[in-house]
Design brief:
- The protein contains two helices and four strands.
- By secondary structure, the chain is α+β, with helices and mostly antiparallel strands.
Amino acid sequence: MFDDRYRYVNANHLAKGLFPEIKEWAVDKKVPDSDSYAYREIVQYLYGWDGKEKATKMVSKDDLFYQMEIRPISYGKKENVGYLFR
């Protein structure tokens, strides 16, 4: 999960298991540029997303494929307070 300024908020155990580098990301901070798989497949994808509708992305890890969906998070009248990968 990321806020509307692309700062890391949190990740579940599955995400941290698939992408161990997430454990190094600091909460409420932008994810530092890197050549890690998680940065390329999650963060750069988020930066390039237009944010207008949900998007689906496939990633592979250890010969398995996972489908990720990104959605904007709404709160009250504010349409976008962050982004959720699931």
